[in-house]
TrEMBL record:
Domain of life: Bacteria
SUPFAM superfamilies on file: Homeodomain-like
Pfam families, per database record: DUF6597 (PF20240), HTH_18 (PF12833)
Lineage, opening ranks: Bacteria, Pseudomonadati, Pseudomonadota, Alphaproteobacteria, Hyphomicrobiales
GO MF annotations in UniProt: DNA-binding transcription factor activity; sequence-specific DNA binding
UniProt-recorded name of the protein: AraC-type DNA-binding protein
Species of the source: Bradyrhizobium lablabi
Entry annotated with the keyword Phosphoprotein: no
Domain HTH araC/xylS-type: 189-288
């Protein structure tokens, strides 16, 4: 349950730079666009999943692995079917058209049921609370309808503008403008923001060392981090490492090289952690049909802005 009053559009609207960001490259089932400067503190990456042909769209199943980042999602064609699964446990999610969500364990499988049109925004964990007014643990492995967070009128207006747009750039400009207008001015505690950033860059950093670098006690770090991000620093680092595994594997590295690049002791260590968090082995998750030839999937383990975590 999300608490607090719904968020309305800001009464003060500074003149933002050009909306719509910069096209990066189509990657086979979506178009990546680099976020505009106005939302750079909040948005890490944006994709437009744009497949108007029904048969082509329904041929896809899109897997969303666990992540440190929440996602802001706006659909503009047929609503997709979404199932969460962790090992033998699974559940079907309510078909909200527009959602805020985060996967911290298991996998979301998204199955188009008609022409596909979805704007997917990966939010920076350090800035997401300025938008959501919800604790991160409330987003864990669930989809929260945007109408439960923002005013119904504002979401209806966003939906109308996105559906009337004629291009990816126009659609994403509408979403960016909405995000910009609904940002709160307060910011996260810089201690925990730095902790999040450091763990995403270096998941092997020990909690004791991280606390020392931040000049706080381990207890203070663990309690404040959990309150901010809905999980412990150690589990957050494990999620960050899984993100690096996905990026490294999609860049074409073999499993031994993936394990080394992502800081695992060996492949057995990688497989164990991956199975615990994702709910299956790496081979089961990636399968044999991963489209290695897709443009735009190249990504170093450091996760560039254009890194695409989705598996089709």
């Amino acid at each position: 349950m999300v608490t607090g009053p719904p968020i309305g559009l800001s009464q003060l609207e500074p003149q933002p730079p050009k909306w719509g960001g910069e096209h990066i490259v189509p990657d086979g089932f979506s178009r990546s666009i680099r976020p505009s400067a106005a939302v750079a503190d909040l948005v890490e990456a944006i994709w437009d999943w744009d497949i108007p042909d029904r048969d082509a769209a329904t041929a896809f199943t899109i897997k969303v692995p666990p992540s440190t980042a929440p996602y802001f999602v706006v659909q503009y064609r047929t609503l997709t079917h979404c199932r969460w699964q962790l090992g033998g446990d699974s559940c079907d999610h309510k078909n909200y058209g527009h959602v805020l969500t985060q996967t911290q364990s298991g996998t979301f499988a998204i199955s188009p049921r008609g022409p596909l049109g979805v704007i997917t925004v990966r939010l920076k964990p350090e800035g997401a609370a300025r938008l959501a007014r919800a604790s991160m643990h409330e987003l864990m492995n669930v989809k929260i309808g945007l109408r439960n967070i923002f005013r119904d009128h504002d979401i209806a207006l966003l939906e109308e503008r996105v559906m009337e747009s004629g291009s990816s750039s126009e659609r994403i400009a509408c979403v960016e403008r909405f995000l910009f207008q609904n940002l709160r001015q307060d910011r996260e505690d810089p201690v925990f923001s730095r902790a999040s950033s450091w763990l995403r860059r270096n998941p092997g950093l020990r909690v004791r060392k991280l606390a020392s670098l931040l000049d706080v006690s381990e207890r203070q770090l663990s309690r404040g981090f959990r309150a901010t991000y809905g999980t412990s620093p150690k589990q957050y680092a494990r999620l960050a490492r899984i993100e690096k595994v996905v990026a490294a594997r999609k860049s074409g590295l073999g499993w031994a090289d993936v394990a080394y690049a992502c800081g695992f002791v060996d492949q057995a260590h990688l497989i164990h952690d991956f199975a615990t968090i994702v709910g299956g082995t790496p081979a089961e998750f990636f399968g044999t049909t991963l489209r290695w030839g897709l443009r735009g999937t190249e990504a170093a383990p450091g996760m560039a802005d254009s890194y695409n975590p989705f598996i089709v």
